[in-house]
Amino acid sequence: MGQKINPLGFRLGTTQSHRSFWFAQTKNYSVGLQEDEKIRNCIKNYVQKNRRISSGFEGIARIGIQKRIDLIQVIIHIGFPNLLMEGQTRGIEELQMNVQKELHSVNRRLNIAITRIEKPYGQPNILAEYIALQLKNRVSFRKSMKKAIELTEQTDTKGIQVQIAGRIDGKEIARVEWIREGRVPLQTIRAKIDHCSYTIRTIYGVLGIKIWIFVNEFGYL
């Protein structure tokens, strides 16, 4: 069960909450879903083009979206300081203009807020991005996974599992390699699990990175 269903969707309403909060009729649901995807892609592309970090981190842990009749509220949870975190309203205003143009929405206002994460390496998206950068720089996949696990030891996580699939190290036959440290109980709903799937394109082909982080375990109700 732990590998046949998304750990986040499996725990919605118990230890996980939705990343998007809005309501739509059945015939308009697909339009709202595509709108969310446009917002997230536009933000990631803007941060990637305007980042000031030498290591190449985007540092976006997650993007929350809340929609009302006349307002779209976007909250960006970011782990590392970049152009958006230096107190300059110019970067946020420029980002709002880019997203507004992408949406082609005149009747709704757009508001973007930035939230800094204290322990970024406790977020699976940031860890997956770190591993992807290491693999692009021809670092061994085992060394990259072990380094990612060492970074999570600075946080309060109780366990982590990292998996890489594809033509690892340029081998002709694709395979799956994984490593685990601590407990990762995927079969219990009361366990709060953070999960992400990350795709990286290399000269050998596409590699898939999956990370499970065991944050906490809640008692029985």
What can you see in these coordinates?
Belongs to the universal ribosomal protein uS3 family. Its main location: plastid. It is found in: Plastid, Chloroplast. InterPro entries: KH_dom-like_a/b, KH_sf_prok-type, Ribosomal_S3_C_sf, Ribosomal_uS3, Ribosomal_uS3_bac-typ, Ribosomal_uS3_C, Ribosomal_uS3_CS. The chain is an alpha/beta fold. The chain has two domains: 17-116, 2-Layer Sandwich (GMP Synthetase, Chain A, domain 3); 120-217, Ribosomal protein S3, C-terminal domain (Ribosomal protein S3 C-terminal domain), CATH 3.30.1140.32. 30% of the residues lie in helices and 30% in strands. It contains five helices and eight strands. It has helices at 7-10, 29-50, 89-103, 124-136, 141-152, and strands at 20-21, 60-67, 71-78, 109-116, 159-166, 175-182, 191-202, 205-217. α2 runs antiparallel to α3. The protein is globular and about 50 Å long.
Question: How many distinct helices?
Answer: 5
Mean pLDDT: 85
Cα shape: globular
CATH superfamily of the largest domain: K homology (KH) domain
Q: Which CATH C-level class of the largest domain is it?
A: Alpha Beta
The number of E-state strands comes to 8
Task: Please bin the fraction of helical residues.
Answer: 25-40%
- CATH topology of the largest domain, by name, is GMP Synthetase, Chain A, domain 3
